[in-house]
């Protein structure tokens, strides 16, 4: 066990936790504070994720950290029913996903707080973080959950129930499975 390794992490190997280095430390520190960071290239202006020390589009090393909005849309997903690596086995089934961040980059992640049958390509998601609440001393990991729409944002309109505007094929997902209304395809 290395110095500073939490005892729980050393006793049972965990395959869902990052191993930060000096370069990625700002990313993981921000995640621990509930903020998602991306990298943006000053030379070509494009954002990218996963964090790299150079731009994957123009190869410039003039890249900086910037806060992301945390908003995303679901690009694709797969429901994982079996995974023997700790702690995934205790989480199955879970939704492994790729999301399009509002800033442009695609990101591999997990969708939480939603039944798989309610997922729709293009549905709105927002970032939340998992990890620090499970075991003290571990990095928080960004995961995504469906948007929570309220009031005038509710497709049924202000003062109406969240389901008031739902009709098959009108662009709203099967909201009941997520406990909220989320944009659909």
Automatic annotation (TrEMBL):
At the top level of its lineage, which domain of life is listed?
Bacteria
Family matches, as Pfam families: OB_ChsH2_C, zf-ChsH2
**ChsH2 C-terminal OB-fold domain: residues covered:** 65-130
Q: Which InterPro entries match?
A: ChsH2_C (IPR002878), ChsH2_Znr (IPR022002), NA-bd_OB-fold (IPR012340), Thioester_dehydratase-like (IPR052513)
Q: What is this protein called?
A: Zn-ribbon domain-containing OB-fold protein
**Domain ChsH2 rubredoxin-like zinc ribbon stretches:** 28-64
Q: Which PANTHER family match?
A: BLR3430 PROTEIN
């Amino acid at each position: 066990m290395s110095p500073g390794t939490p005892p729980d992490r050393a006793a049972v190997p965990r395959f869902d936790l990052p191993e930060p280095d000096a370069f990625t430390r700002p990313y993981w520190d921000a995640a621990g504070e509930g903020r998602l960071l991306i990298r943006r290239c000053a030379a070509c202006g494009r954002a990218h994720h996963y964090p790299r020390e150079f731009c994957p589009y123009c190869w410039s090393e003039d890249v900086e950290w910037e806060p992301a909005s945390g908003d995303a849309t679901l690009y694709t997903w797969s429901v994982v029913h079996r995974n023997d690596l700790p702690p995934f086995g205790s989480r199955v089934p879970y939704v492994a996903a790729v999301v399009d961040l509002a800033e442009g980059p695609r990101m591999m992640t997990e969708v939480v707080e939603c039944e798989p049958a309610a997922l729709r390509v293009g549905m709105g998601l927002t970032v939340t973080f998992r990890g620090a609440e499970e075991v003290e001393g571990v990095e928080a990991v960004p995961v995504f959950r469906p948007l929570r729409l309220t009031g005038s944002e509710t497709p049924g309109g202000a003062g109406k129930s969240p389901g008031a505007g739902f009709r098959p094929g009108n662009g709203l997902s099967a909201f009941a499975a997520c406990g909220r209304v989320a944009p659909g395809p």
